[in-house]
Amino acid sequence: MPGQALTEMDKKVLAWQNKGKEVPTRELIRTPEEIEGIRRAGVVNTGVLDEVARQIHAGMSTLEIDDICMDYCQRHGAIPACLNYEGFPKSVCTSINEVVCHGIPKAEDVLEEGDIINVDFTTILDGFYADASRMFIIGKTTPEKEQLVRVAKECLEIGAEAAKPYGTVGDIGYAIEKHAKKYHYGVVRDLCGHGVGLKFHEEPDVPHYGRRGHGMLLVPGMVFTIEPMINMGSWRVFIDAEDPFGWEVISEDELPSAQWEHTFLMTEHGVEILTY
């Protein structure tokens, strides 16, 4: 700002901007107080998913998972960000097998032995947001599904390792896509990670494919999700025409899909996980 002394970080960002790099605005750099607020939201978000992990089993409906999440959230003074977000009718996304993401909890969707399911929850606590998802394998499943779930988690971890201060979001996507291609898996392109913290979705977009050195500069103080959606087959997806809410995303070839997600804080030394 005019009249305000430039910090060392400001100088680094300006130098990259002068080289033609897309850089974040000051509004995307969280203050220490904001980071602590997001961190507290992350603790509750982790607790929600831990509670699901304790209770999830074959024979339960995804609507029961929604009840678990809502109850835990309310008991800890938080709000589920998904509930009524742009018409989404429940507090959590429950995506089974070929449902890539945004699966809506239903009484008739009952978990069966061998299913894989992504449970994706976002917490609002005191106005701060934290977002994470986990995969769960119900009982014993096929080796193919087990591998998919494992590789999707590896993609998240590899993406996080690629996220470096003053690197770019393209570095993250490049690393994820490279690993997924080793298994001939498709990396979903229609959805991406995103900034989070003061809003549900903020800049930057964080694609899970791409080119090194491209996209927005990653600067200490930024908070964002990495959440690769990895399909067993094609990366292409479609919206379920029978979903009256227009939310559920399904793999085009209806082969299984897996996703893991964390909220990350960029620091001077790399990313710190704010959700588990």
Describe this structure as you would to a colleague.
- The structure is a single chain.
- The protein is of the alpha+beta class and 276 residues long.
- It is 30% helix and 24% strand.
- The protein is built from 5 helices and 15 strands.
- Strands 1, 2, 4 and 5 form a 4-stranded antiparallel β-sheet that branches.
- Helix 2 (32-55) packs across helix 3 (62-75) and helix 4 runs antiparallel to helix 5 (169-181).
- The model has no long low-confidence stretch (mean pLDDT 96).
Kindly summarize this structure in a few lines.
It contains 5 helices and 15 strands.
Give the fraction of residues assigned to helices.
25-40%
Q: Report the order of strands and helices.
A: HHHEEEEEHHEEEEEEEEEE
- Describe the main β-sheet briefly: 4 strands, antiparallel
Q: What is the overall pLDDT average?
A: 96
Q: List the total number of helices.
A: 5
Rg computed from alpha carbons, rounded to a whole number of angstroms: 19 Å
Strand content: 15-25%
| Tertiary shape | globular
- How many individual β-strands? 15
Can you tell me the residue ranges where pLDDT is under 50 for at least 5 consecutive residues? Answer: none
By secondary-structure content and strand pairing, the structural class works out as alpha+beta
Rounded to the nearest angstrom, the distance between the terminal CA atoms is: 36 Å
